[in-house]
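[agent] plan:
  1. take the single chain provided in the ticket
  2. run structure prediction with default settings
  3. attach structure tokens to the ticket
  4. add a short note for the reviewer (M.T.)
[agent] executing step 1
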Amino acid sequence: MTTAFTPAPVPSAASPLAERFRPTIRLRLTLLYGGLFLVAGIVLLALIYFLMRNNMPTEGKHVKFLSKPGQTQPPPEMLERMPPGTMLTSEQAQNVVGEIRKDTARETLRSLLTQGAIALMLVGAAAVGFGWLLAERALRPVHKITETARRVARGHDLGERIAYAGPRDEVKELADTFDTMLERLARSFDGQRRFVANASHELRTPLAVNRTLVDVAVRRPDATDDLKRLGESLLVVNARHERLIDGLLTLAGSENHLVGGGPLDLADVASHVLDQAGAEASGREITVHRDLDAARTTGDPVLLERLVQNLVENGIRHNHDHGELWATTRIRNGWVELVVANTGPVVPGYEMETIFEPFRRLGNERVRSDRGSGLGLSIVRATANAHHGAVSATPRLGGGLVVTVHLPAASP
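[agent] step 2 finished; step 3 output follows
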């Protein structure tokens, strides 16, 4: 019998083209600097043009020195045809000088606009380049803050600080505020880790003592049958409380855990967990199918082992006798994928999200169940989120559940 697995949607990376041409602050500042420079240059060029046009002498005196009626000045072609050495009267010379002034003014203003526009474009391009460099230098502290925040978000040491040593401006105020926030977060996480460690000791020790005392009382030679039955019931209740406390501590630790560790193969972890669960599966005659391809990821080996263990135990305990369980590891689309499926009772689709909530169980098992504390899938989701992954569940055709976990693949 084969089961088709439908992978859960995984986060998709942004398009490289969109990432390259996204409107960054540096680009906006560069365009702002260049735009302001061009506007100022255009205004200055227009002002110079109007000042020169208004102050440049362009008019001359015109007299009638030809006999043709209505003509007040000699046409340019006649002036060009005048032979060298032609003698002009004073009035004729003034008229010629006036025409030359007008032509010179027009050419000067035209050259001013043309050459000024070319110079403005060249200087504007240089201003955009310098604006790009200056914007990068101005935003360098912000990039440093972003890189620090990214490293901390990926699970590195909260003790890292920006320690910006620049002038006391808005950027330094932002950096100092971020350092203060990191310091408070570090104290908060340290306090939570100490609480989990202390709670683990303070809660488990009394239960271990109770288990020992009840076990000794039950094994006494003079113990009555009623005492033995009571002791066995107390041992069952004590074991259930131990599992509950262990699950709560694991859930709190995974939700507040800064994931470190190194690369590991999830197929090895799944194989180890399946070997350990073999006895329980054999006791209920459940057939386990393995399809464990190499799936290297990065994370905390203890938490990831607990993640796989919870899924396998959930698939065995919420299964039919003589049922089946499938465990698959692989790499798909750059993500490590773990799929655990099992036969069992039909699970309604509207229960898929609620089963990941703490203490939520299916159907009549919500109030009381000896199959677990109701924290298994909650721990799975918290652990996957702590490793920047995701988990989803879908009903299996014919009964049972298919749980899919996606984790980031380790870099080669």
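[agent] step 4 note for reviewer: Strands lie at 262-265, 287-292, 296-299, 324-332, 335-342, 390-395, 401-408.
[agent] ticket updated
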